[in-house]
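Dear colleagues,

As part of the handover before I leave the project, I'm documenting each prediction I ran so the next person doesn't have to rerun anything. This entry is a single chain, and its sequence is reproduced below.
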Amino acid sequence: MKKYSWTIKGEDMEKTFRKRIHIIGSIGSGKTTLAKRLSTQLDIPYYELDNVVWKRSETGDSKRTTEDRDEYLQSVIGTDDWIIEGVHHKWVTPSFQHADVILFLDIKLSIRRFRVIKRFLMQKIGLETANYKPSFKILKDLYNYNTVFEYESKPEIFDMLRPYESKLIVIKNNNEVIDCLKKGNLNE
């Protein structure tokens, strides 16, 4: 294993660990964008939790059974290096336990709502791909889910993450993400 330097809760800590990162946040918080950038920068694979839940195919998606989903998650966290990102939280405790760092993207609700609308428009005109057919019903559901996340899921997630506070980094805005990347806190 190699040494990596992280800034956690304002303290500089040097810790020896494998690169295992869990990114969590609401829709439109920037999870996938950050996961892709870190994956490239650190040269480790990233996994979207939506793809752990859903088995993707050209003929359509099918939902994995709970047992298959949990087995798939275990196969990912059983590897040396990974980035897992997603909004799911109720069944991902093993990922929290095995992560070296947990990044919670706590981006303002208004910014997330703007991003959801922007993503929908980009998907409608074909400039961005989607795993679903973008419709106004889906837009409304995603928009509303952000509110549910803010007032119900987020407090629940913070409660779940209490045992892992020593490896939790809460990111409030894009500048903090950029600073985290620029400072090399996630680099060798």
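Strands lie at 3-8, 11-16, 20-25, 46-48, 54-55, 62-63, 82-86, 101-105, 168-171. Helices lie at 31-42, 49-53, 66-77, 93-98, 109-124, 136-161, 174-182.

All the best with the project,
I.
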